[in-house]
Write a structure and sequence with these properties.
This protein is α+β, with helices and mostly antiparallel strands. The protein is 25% helix and 30% strand. It is built from 6 helices and 10 strands. The protein is globular, with a radius of gyration of 18 Å.
């Protein structure tokens, strides 16, 4: 899920130029250009809200390429009755990025929730199995070391219940006060940290 590609798709569908979208939401055209090309990696809730309003979609639809389907529900509305709320699977989008590069410095221990994506229960079951919504979060990826598997600006789902090595695979993890998204592989005496982009060398944790 690349929000930049989605914004470009929606903008073109409305026959809007970059400058027109930028003026409508009160930012420079260069900011929209950076967002669409993946160079703008972090988004405030205010920016997401303005983009969604201008493009005529709900915020959740900025994160999916299938807005006409029934897989993603509209963003949270506190006025929904309790029965409808129980039918939703809500995943929070965190105001934090993981580095597919040389690491991002971690901020404070408190991480803000900038929004959420809501799925109907049947689709959530198909996508995530029996994992509870509370154990899943969405974060932004910065850097290209995991390309083409994960591109800069992509939003990824993270299972926060996994807090130790649990077999070879892609992990989001903290090391030396930095946050990474990398492929980890265990060998007898150390843990290899591998980038899918061959321009980056692997390193190890012992």
């Amino acid at each position: 899920m690349n929000i930049g590609n989605r914004v470009r798709q929606l903008r073109r569908a409305k026959n809007m130029k970059i400058a027109e979208l930028a003026e409508a939401i009160g930012v420079d055209a260069a900011n929209i250009s950076r967002l669409e090309t993946g160079k703008q990696k972090q988004f405030t809730e205010q920016t997401l809200s303005r983009l969604a309003d201008c493009l005529g979609v709900d915020i959740a639809e900025l994160f999916t390429s299938d807005p006409k389907g029934n897989t993603v529900c509209k963003h949270s509305d506190m006025r929904k009755d309790s029965a409808n709320v129980k039918d939703l699977f809500r995943i929070e989008i965190l105001d934090v990025s993981a580095s597919a590069g040389n690491g991002l410095i971690q901020g404070g221990d408190v991480i803000d929730v900038i929004h959420a994506i809501e799925y109907n229960k049947d689709k959530a079951l198909a996508m995530f199995g029996g994992r509870p919504a509370a154990e899943l979060k969405v974060i932004n990826v910065r850097g290209d070391s995991m390309a083409p598997t994960i591109e800069p600006g992509d939003l990824i789902f993270v299972d926060i219940s996994i807090n130790q090595f649990d077999g070879d695979g892609i992990y989001v993890f903290g090391f030396d006060d930095k946050i990474y998204v990398k492929r980890l592989q265990m060998i007898p005496d150390k843990l290899l940290v591998i980038s899918d982009n061959t321009n980056y060398r692997e390193w190890s944790i012992t």
